[in-house]
Amino acid sequence: MIITVQQHLLQQQRNVSEATGRFTWLMHGITLATKMVESKIRSAGLTNILGAYGETNVQGEQQQKLDVYANQALLHCLGLAEGVAALVSEEDANPITVDLNPDNGKYLVVFDPLDGSSNIDVNVNVGTIFSVLRRPEGTEANVGDVANWALQPGYKQVAAGYVLYGPSTILVYTAGNGVFGFTLDPSVGAFVLTNEKMCMPEQGPYYSTNEGNAHDWPEVYREYIRRITSGALGQPYGGRYIGSLVADFHRTLHKGGVFLYPPTKKTPGGKLRLLYEANPLAFIAEQAGGMAVTETGRILDIEPTSIHQRTPFVVGSMVEVKAFKDLVAEMGSK
Ligand code: P6P
């Protein structure tokens, strides 16, 4: 007997007293948009949807055609969803307002429409990442304030999730009551529940990072990789790096281990974005029994100062991430 994501959300909604159905509508917007993206990705090699779009985004990155399509799909579907006040996209410099009426617009959705899109031309997994925030209490319908509404620490997220477009298309999300996994069943065109209460193993077999940057890392990161690969945590480690954040994270969630993107001289504040990459994945990691930190503390405690800000990112199993925190303390105390 299958349970679709819509049925799951309606069941969950019954357990949440103040749920008004707006959250369920919002999640419908996300699942519909990602099914549209999935359909485009599946036929990417056969239609003229691959390659560069010919413009750069606010990050200064060359937009791929599928980046633009995914962004438009999410803006369209979430723009129709009840309860959405505004949207923040990795592809757009400023937030997009939807319904600023305080009686209707209760949520902000922050998303990376298609992360890792540079991998599409070589047929490697890509993903959509999203984070749901409550509109701050007492905010007036003032367009100029909307960007500030999104500047909330990650522990305030209402929900977070991702869709991984791989051999199968999966949706993983949390609303603070555990992590749930769904698989798109093409025969019915619905995400069906395939993993209840996903848990990250306490320790795992892999470390995952771009070691091509190691010469540029702060010393503590080099020492950390030296230690875990020399057996300091009581076992050998294999290296796995796909270069597509959602795929590297999903493997870490399932198998355990650690993923890290340290600061480099080129990106001293880190490469990954706080609001729509690190925060949503950190929320999922913690809900699954893992951890997510920087050298200075918990990812979810960072007070954001701009909607596109970046952060160093160390996420994974309790054993590996705690070992990183202990090393930072050990080296910091030297
Ligand atoms: P690098 C993809 O461009 C991305 O934003 C993430 O998906 C991925 O984890 C990271 O960058 C890869 O970066 O510098 O290793 O190519």
TrEMBL record:
<feature type="binding site">
    <location>
        <position position="114"/>
    </location>
    <ligand>
        <name>Mg(2+) 1</name>
    </ligand>
</feature>
<keyword id="KW-0479">Metal-binding</keyword>
<dbReference type="Pfam" id="PF18913">
    <property type="entry name" value="FBPase_C"/>
</dbReference>
<dbReference type="GO" id="GO:0006002">
    <property type="term" value="P:fructose 6-phosphate metabolic process"/>
</dbReference>
<comment type="subunit">
    <text>Homotetramer.</text>
</comment>
<dbReference type="Pfam" id="PF00316">
    <property type="entry name" value="FBPase"/>
</dbReference>
<dbReference type="GO" id="GO:0006000">
    <property type="term" value="P:fructose metabolic process"/>
</dbReference>
<comment type="pathway">
    <text>Carbohydrate biosynthesis; Calvin cycle.</text>
</comment>
<feature type="domain" description="Fructose-1-6-bisphosphatase class 1 C-terminal">
    <location>
        <begin position="200"/>
        <end position="327"/>
    </location>
</feature>
<dbReference type="GO" id="GO:0000287">
    <property type="term" value="F:magnesium ion binding"/>
</dbReference>
<dbReference type="GO" id="GO:0005986">
    <property type="term" value="P:sucrose biosynthetic process"/>
</dbReference>
<dbReference type="GO" id="GO:0006094">
    <property type="term" value="P:gluconeogenesis"/>
</dbReference>
<feature type="binding site">
    <location>
        <begin position="115"/>
        <end position="118"/>
    </location>
    <ligand>
        <name>substrate</name>
    </ligand>
</feature>
<feature type="binding site">
    <location>
        <position position="271"/>
    </location>
    <ligand>
        <name>substrate</name>
    </ligand>
</feature>
<dbReference type="InterPro" id="IPR028343">
    <property type="entry name" value="FBPtase"/>
</dbReference>
<keyword id="KW-0460">Magnesium</keyword>
<dbReference type="InterPro" id="IPR033391">
    <property type="entry name" value="FBPase_N"/>
</dbReference>
<keyword id="KW-0119">Carbohydrate metabolism</keyword>
<keyword id="KW-0378">Hydrolase</keyword>
<dbReference type="InterPro" id="IPR044015">
    <property type="entry name" value="FBPase_C_dom"/>
</dbReference>
<feature type="domain" description="Fructose-1-6-bisphosphatase class I N-terminal">
    <location>
        <begin position="3"/>
        <end position="196"/>
    </location>
</feature>
<dbReference type="InterPro" id="IPR020548">
    <property type="entry name" value="Fructose_bisphosphatase_AS"/>
</dbReference>
<comment type="similarity">
    <text>Belongs to the FBPase class 1 family.</text>
</comment>
<dbReference type="GO" id="GO:0005829">
    <property type="term" value="C:cytosol"/>
</dbReference>
<feature type="binding site">
    <location>
        <position position="115"/>
    </location>
    <ligand>
        <name>Mg(2+) 2</name>
    </ligand>
</feature>
<feature type="binding site">
    <location>
        <position position="90"/>
    </location>
    <ligand>
        <name>Mg(2+) 1</name>
    </ligand>
</feature>
<keyword id="KW-0963">Cytoplasm</keyword>
<feature type="binding site">
    <location>
        <position position="112"/>
    </location>
    <ligand>
        <name>Mg(2+) 1</name>
    </ligand>
</feature>
<feature type="binding site">
    <location>
        <position position="277"/>
    </location>
    <ligand>
        <name>Mg(2+) 2</name>
    </ligand>
</feature>
<feature type="binding site">
    <location>
        <position position="241"/>
    </location>
    <ligand>
        <name>substrate</name>
    </ligand>
</feature>
<feature type="binding site">
    <location>
        <position position="112"/>
    </location>
    <ligand>
        <name>Mg(2+) 2</name>
    </ligand>
</feature>
<dbReference type="InterPro" id="IPR000146">
    <property type="entry name" value="FBPase_class-1"/>
</dbReference>
<protein>
    <recommendedName>
        <fullName>Fructose-1,6-bisphosphatase class 1</fullName>
        <ecNumber>3.1.3.11</ecNumber>
    </recommendedName>
</protein>
<dbReference type="GO" id="GO:0042132">
    <property type="term" value="F:fructose 1,6-bisphosphate 1-phosphatase activity"/>
</dbReference>
<dbReference type="GO" id="GO:0030388">
    <property type="term" value="P:fructose 1,6-bisphosphate metabolic process"/>
</dbReference>
<feature type="binding site">
    <location>
        <position position="210"/>
    </location>
    <ligand>
        <name>substrate</name>
    </ligand>
</feature>
